Amino acid sequence: MAAATLRPVTLPLAALLVYPATLLLGSLYSTISPTANPSRDTQLASPLAPSLAADLHLSESPVNYFARKNNVFNVYFVKIGWLWTTAAFVSLLLFQPLYSSSRPQSSSQQETRLRRTLQAVLRYALATTAWYLSTQWFFGPAIIDRGFVVTGGKCERAFEKVEELGTGTTDLEALFTAATCKAAGGAWRGGHDISGHVLMLVLATGFLAFEAVGASAPAFPSRFGPTGDAGRERKASDADSPPTVGTTESGGVAGTWSLRLVWGVVGLGWWMLFMTAIWFHTWLEKWSGLLIALSAVYAIYILPRRLASWRNVVGEPGI
């Protein structure tokens, strides 16, 4: 009789294609739809040209609710998106049996759960670092702001005000970020503005999706030997000898709701990514944000499948 094999459930690399597909669909819709592409005061000649930094905006009274920067989902979800991401991830650590259990455990099971938890926290730390350095701070202005200045962007209106006062602008230009420019009453114009929304939403939803799939699947012994090579897979004929680290324990009500929270954040994150693809930024700015985010997701979740030394450090969800 043919032997069946059991493998940990993980997201395939092809699952990441949902992100470029979403941006492509949104960008095409924004181009061909009369609603999404009205006459704009800030309309640009080319979708690849530099934009108003922060948003390639519609009119003062946009025809779609999601084209408004002050829509409730943008203000209370996207703007604090990493807080929602963190809360959803913590719920997995607290309520999924892969990481915590109320049942008696052997010392080997405790060690396995501790290893999984530490590696999951490390993956979270890596994703958070990628988000933080790109959008918040990178030894001064974030990578996105530095890239904008390098490509010719500046805080135009604020500089005009400073010049009227007869003060220099060189130092001011070097220190400005998109946030400080807006706070000073300026307009962040002229450079390539990598979409921070796209970067954060892709990175956050990719991170949570990989973690949720791994945490919610029954845990099996690692398919990798101690040297990182593919080890012997557990066969159906081994059923009488239970795995030393496997579990089919249910997370109960709390575990169910933690997964609902995670997938709710992922679903809303995807929707806001689609809205961003339709209403904001140029094509190139959206796709550059996507490239940075997918590079981080690849390094954290796909590369360990191919590189044993890296896998031994960050692990894989569900293993």
TrEMBL record:
Organism: Penicillium arizonense
EC number: 3.6.1.-
InterPro entries: FIT, SCS3
The keyword Lipid metabolism is assigned to this record: yes
Entry membrane topology: Multi-pass membrane protein
The name this protein goes by in its record: Acyl-coenzyme A diphosphatase SCS3
GO BP annotations, alphabetical order: lipid droplet formation; phospholipid biosynthetic process
Residue ranges crossing the lipid bilayer per the database entry: 12-32, 80-99, 120-139, 194-213, 261-281, 287-303
Broad EC category: hydrolase
Family the UniProt entry places it in: Belongs to the FIT family. Fungal FIT2B/SCS3 subfamily.
Lineage: Eukaryota, Fungi, Dikarya, Ascomycota, Pezizomycotina
Subcellular location: Endoplasmic reticulum membrane
